[in-house]
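Example record for the data management plan.
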Amino acid sequence: MIGAFFVIRAKDNFRFKAAESRQIDKTTGLRCDQTIKLSIYKSNEQYPKKLRRIKYYDQEKDLMLVFLTNNFDLEALEVAAIYKNRWQIEIFFKWIKQNLQIKTLWGHSENAVKIHLWIAICTYLIVAYLKHQLRSKYSVYEIMQILGISAFAKTPIDELFAKQQINQNVKEQLNLFNYNEILTHQ
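Corresponding structural encoding:
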C-alpha cells in the first residue's frame, strides 16, 4: 500500500450503514464521526472497505458538510481542515487559469510545469508593478493584452498607455482591402 488517502464530500443521496460512532465535541462544529459501510449493492461492490463519515457544521457559511475518508488516524477536525485547504488549492488554480492565462502547459514533467508557472507568476507581478508605477486605470489583464499586441512596437511604455493611443479612432486606420487608399497615404 502506498499510504495515500482521500477526503471527499458525500452526495445528498448517499446511503450507508453506521458500524461505529466516536465521541465528538459539538462546540468545534463537529456533528458526528462514524465508521460506515456503503449500503447500495453496486457502491459496496466497487468499494467494499469501511469508510469514515464526518459531519461538520461550518458557522461562517451556515452550511452542513459531510465528508468521507479512508483515513481513520486523523482527528475529525483535521479531516475538515484538509477539505477546506483542498478547496483553497482549487480556488488558487482557478485564479491561475483566469489571471495568468495559462491555456496549455509547455511540458508535462514536474520541472516544466514549475518553470511555466513561475514564469507566468513573474510576468504577472512585473505587469502589476508596471500598473502601479504608471498609476494606470487599466486592469492587469488589459495591460497584458496591450503589451501582447505591442510586443514588437518601438513605442515607449508610458506612451503605449496614453489615452489617445488606446482610444484611437477606427476610422483613422487604413483599409487593407482598398489598395488605392493605401497608395494615397504614402
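Summary line stored alongside the record: The chain has seven helices and five strands.
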